[in-house]
Amino acid sequence: MPRRALLLWAAPFLLAVLGFEALPVLSVLAGSFVHGGEWSLGNYAALLSSRFYRGAFATSVNVSLLTSAIGLGIGLPLSLALHRRSAPVQRRFLTLFNVASNFVGVPLALAFTILAGVNGVVTLLLVRSGLVQDFNIYSLQGLMLVYAYFQVPFAVLVLFPSLGALTPDLAEQARLMGASRLTFWRRIGLPVLAPSLVGSFILLFANAMGTYATAYALIGGGANLVTIRIGELVAGDVFTDPNLANALAVLLVLALLLPILVDQLLLRRRA
Amino acid sequence: MSFVEIRGFGKAYGATPVFADVELDVAEGEMCILLGPSGCGKTTLLRAVAGLARPDRGRLVIAGRDVTAASPEARGVAMVFQHYALFPNMTVRQNLAFGLQQKRLPRARIAEKVDAALALMELAPRADARPAELSGGQKQRVALARALVLEPRLLLLDEPLSALDAQIRKRLRDELKRLQRETGFTAILVTHDQEEALVLGDQVAVMNAGRIVQAGPAREVYDRPATRFVAGFIGDFNLLEPDAVRRVFGEQADHAWAIHPEAIDLLPTAAEHGGLTAEASVIDVRIHGPVLRYLVSANGTELKVDVLNRSSIAARCPGDTVRLRLDRAQVREVA
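^ inputs. structure came back:
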């Protein structure tokens, strides 16, 4: 097929990419350099010199790093356990995890409020049984608990396919050669899984960094997260500054791109 | 006393037996082949010898020591898996060194042994490559070297050549035989390929439905199949039921006759002859390299006949009438 005809066939796809991916990013990028009606780096200067916005980044990164670690820490053993089950069991659980990882936003926040809010069923049970004094879901710790709800199944979903590289005969071979379980995981299991663990961690990190609705529905503007600050600057009650929001969004994208680039570099070096 | 003794081995998954009443003796320095169709229990039996599967019954002795209850690493066995199980994150050299490191050998001694194994398997130029960079044949040689470097009392090989293409498979088969002759290791090899079994095996144990149906020297199993299953599985026998024997050769038989395709001579119809004879017509002829395989029909019974492919012999064509001659001593009666 001639090149021109091929381009024609691809035109709907290219148009969609241009309209829904490239143009919005370019518009955000361009807007981020407009400050006070002129081209300048003023938005970036304002953001980087503001303790408030630096704090938003620090909180977002902390929450994302921690919940990614929790997601991976629970998701890896879960994936390994699931990997040993029969195909029908795997399918059933993967469907369940798929649903759970997509159960985010207002419904998730509402569910957690009912269960673990100040007057939530679980909170009351725990307080009355004397196991906890009090528990405040509307805090950063509470937010992390809610994030963990979708981070853990998301970790299983992204890790599970890569476990195929760890065939049972590798563990059996190591055992026959006299290696303990610990030695197997230290010398073979974890190094074999390392690239997918790093890749999964980055995906979890990006997933948490980009979360907006869940946090907003749970804590509202009180949570100093980057996504909530962007939301406020675009559609806030007090004041709006869309171009400052654009600059904040560009910095958020950069914060996500950096680990992805490092991962790619590491992968290339290993290959 | 044999070097490896398997006595009354049995294993079942629920009500389904995997193998039962397995008795096998392997002499020191012998290569014993477990031959059988897919699903006959041979791989599980091998895994039970390795300690990776637990038999429900029976006893296993290796080099005079009862290892029935011993853990896999305490048995002194090494195994080559069907898909090699090379550690993908390690180089060839690191793969070979891994087992020796677990034995806590001094570093210099490990390097010395690994170098010797690399040289033996002609792998030195690929010592620093990772498994993903190796060809199928090279991976197989690394797996073998990694097992042999541990100097195991018993080497277990699970279909080690099955993942290779025909050419490399033949070459490695010969290499494996040479290696066993030179180093004298004792081995049990699992395969479903009868040619591989006959070429490699000092002893061949044919398995069917979880039982060893015949075990003995390769020549004996090939020449004298004990059952109709062995005859059908090994050597591509012609199997004639008693009424077919009567129709083709005019003989009375109590049991089925198993006849090797190469035991039948093809003669011109007017030739002088002795032994059993029959008129037949050629249905088809195929070239199997050094052998011509004829498919002939005698009184409605189809027979395979193998003849050496020599240019001095004029090939017969489909439709030709020929005379079959068979020495009665070549016939094996099977129940």
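Chain A touches chain B through 17 residues (CB under 8 Å). DSSP finds twelve helices and two strands in chain A.
thumbs up if we can close this ticket
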